[in-house]
């Protein structure tokens, strides 16, 4: 029903005809951008299995032996997989800051485009030595670190408040679409044309997207030559902006850093990413070591949870906006119920899946846990825009900086825990993730807010406007008083 409804934006077209609305072209291109963000990030998780597995080699003298392309221990593999995040953690805050200055669309595009070029160089880096590979992955992380804060800067100019959840959720679904495609395709490419082909294919796709993004997506509706006048006016009016208005952003740092709602959001983002990055980097290895799947099959099975999550992201985004627009739930209630409900479900299914540890039931539990995490993205992931739209990029930069720590720590810890590749070791990995989900659930429940914060730039501007409006009234009252006294 939602897909066929018409919006109150003056455009006579159902929602599924997204090309009729310029802001949904931006959403579609952002979806493809995040597709590249995660396909470029996760391809190594599958490729590393092919790069380090024992392969049968037939020698010229008729004997058969086993060789590895790279003889890396599980702990060294953990460092290789986490190296991306050493760079990634450095730039989310910077990305939020510079996106307000130069335009989120430009920084978003350059971040992904540069990562794509570096991905093309990954095979050369790996053959040059593990130190060179680590350096390339770190630089990739530096450029990808700006992407999430920058897209919030884009939404702050393009997303009407009543459409924030769906626009952000649709774009973020690209993360999981990229994972769904990259994991099985990486396995197929590695088997058919060698592990190097994994990086060449996804690197080229990323470069093509970069060219399209820079051509089609503009900083704001005011400078987009293809947008209709009606849609432009609708977006500006809904955001309380006027054409030609320039944002002079002076972020209220004291208010941000002392806000309970901000820190609750940070903890929630950290908790979701711990479980997500643990599975993102380790699921193919887990399926091979504990579930005894073949390489090509691990790619397909690893993709299933993210396929479910990608589908449910569309559902959660629409459902969140619908609950708000119909007045069934306040913004704070939507963020709290969706986020904490997802975390509780993830806690339960991670524990059950680890306890059973059988291929069918465990993969089912992992799929449900990851899939229901889609509802958390209608909580913490768009909460930055509720608290202060003009500071949303910086807020995402802060939360994403802390949320990157799991990407660094989790693969390393998992590498050490699973050094013997035993079932009990893998159970410990899942129990840790479940515990962190539960902590995030409790803290977000009591600290979350979906309301514009008193310290926000927008709230300060409203108070200033009210003060300015009250001055003529006070002046008129004083004049009347003087006139009465003169007459007396």
UniProtKB/TrEMBL annotation:
Would the keyword Magnesium turn up in this protein's UniProt record? Answer: no
* Any GO molecular function: symporter activity
**Catalytic activity from the UniProt record:** 2 nitrate(out) + H(+)(out) = 2 nitrate(in) + H(+)(in); N-acetylneuraminate(in) + H(+)(in) = N-acetylneuraminate(out) + H(+)(out); D-glucuronate(out) + H(+)(out) = D-glucuronate(in) + H(+)(in); L-aspartate(out) = L-aspartate(in)
Q: Which InterPro entries match?
A: MFS, MFS_dom, MFS_Na/Anion_cotransporter, MFS_trans_sf
> What single Pfam family name could you report for this chain, choosing any that match?
MFS_1
The question of whether Cell membrane is a record keyword is answered with: yes
Report membrane topology: Multi-pass membrane protein
Q: Which GO terms describe its biological process?
A: carboxylic acid transport; monoatomic anion transport
Which branch of life, at top level? Eukaryota
Subcellular location per the Swiss-Prot or TrEMBL entry: Basolateral cell membrane; Cytoplasmic vesicle, Secretory vesicle membrane; Cytoplasmic vesicle, Secretory vesicle, Synaptic vesicle membrane; Lysosome membrane
Annotated membrane-spanning segments are: 24-51, 79-99, 106-126, 132-155, 167-192, 198-217, 256-280, 300-325, 337-357, 363-382, 394-417, 429-447
Keywords for this protein: Cell membrane, Cytoplasmic vesicle, Glycoprotein, Lysosome, Membrane, Symport, Synapse, Transmembrane, Transmembrane helix, Transport
Query: A GO CC term?
Result: lysosomal membrane
Kindly report the protein's main subcellular placement as a broad class: membrane
- Which residues does the UniProt record annotate as the domain Major facilitator superfamily (MFS) profile? 25-452
Describe its function.
Receptor for CM101, a polysaccharide produced by group B Streptococcus with antipathoangiogenic properties.
According to UniProt, the name of this protein is: Sialin
Tell me what organism the protein belongs to: Anopheles sinensis
């Amino acid at each position: 029903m939602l897909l066929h409804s018409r919006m109150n934006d003056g455009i006579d077209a159902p929602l599924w005809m997204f090309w009729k609305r310029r802001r949904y072209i931006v959403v579609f291109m952002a979806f493809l951008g995040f597709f590249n963000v995660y396909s470029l990030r996760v391809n190594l998780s599958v490729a590393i299995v092919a790069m380090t597995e024992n392969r049968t080699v037939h020698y010229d003298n008729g004997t058969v032996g086993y060789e590895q392309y790279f003889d890396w221990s599980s702990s060294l593999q953990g460092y290789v997989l986490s190296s991306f995040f050493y760079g990634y953690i450095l730039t989310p805050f910077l990305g939020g800051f510079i996106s307000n200055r130069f335009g989120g669309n430009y920084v978003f595009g350059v971040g992904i485009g540069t990562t794509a070029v570096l991905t093309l160089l990954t095979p050369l880096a790996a053959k040059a030595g593990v130190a060179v590979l680590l350096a390339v992955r770190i630089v990739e992380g530096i450029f990808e670190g700006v992407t999430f804060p920058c897209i919030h800067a884009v939404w702050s100019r393009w997303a009407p408040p009543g459409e924030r959840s769906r626009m952000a959720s649709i774009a973020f679904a690209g993360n999981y679409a990229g994972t769904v495609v990259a994991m099985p395709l990486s396995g197929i490419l590695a088997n058919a044309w060698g592990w190097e082909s994994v990086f060449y294919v996804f690197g080229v796709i990323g470069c093509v997207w970069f060219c399209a993004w820079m051509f089609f997506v503009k900083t704001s509706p005011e400078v987009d030559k293809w947008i209709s006048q009606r849609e432009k006016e609708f977006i500006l009016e809904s955001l309380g902006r006027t054409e030609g208005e320039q944002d002079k952003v002076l972020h209220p740092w004291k208010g941000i850093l002392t806000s309970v709602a901000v820190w609750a959001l940070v903890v929630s983002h950290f908790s979701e990413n711990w479980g997500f990055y643990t599975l993102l980097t380790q699921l193919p290895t887990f399926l091979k070591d504990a579930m005894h799947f073949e390489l090509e099959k691990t790619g397909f099975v690893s993709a299933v949870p993210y396929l479910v999550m990608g589908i449910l992201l569309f559902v959660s985004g629409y459902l969140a906006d619908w609950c708000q627009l119909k007045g069934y739930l306040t913004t704070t209630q939507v963020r709290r119920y969706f986020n904490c409900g997802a975390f509780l479900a993830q806690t339960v299914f991670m524990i059950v899946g680890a306890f059973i540890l059988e291929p069918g039931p465990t993969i089912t539990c992992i799929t449900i846990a990851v899939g229901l995490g889609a509802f958390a993205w209608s909580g913490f992931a768009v909460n930055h825009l509720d608290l202060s739209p003009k500071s949303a990029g910086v807020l995402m930069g802060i939360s994403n900086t802390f949320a990157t720590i799991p990407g660094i720590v989790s693969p390393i810890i998992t590498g050490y825990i699973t050094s013997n590749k035993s079932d009990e070791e893998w159970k410990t990995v899942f129990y840790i993730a479940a515990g962190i989900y539960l902590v995030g659930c409790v803290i977000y429940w009591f600290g979350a807010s979906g309301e514009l914060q008193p310290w926000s730039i927008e709230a300060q501007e409203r108070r200033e406007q009210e003060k300015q409006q009250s001055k003529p009234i006070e002046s008129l009252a004083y004049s009347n008083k003087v006139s009465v006294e003169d007459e007396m």
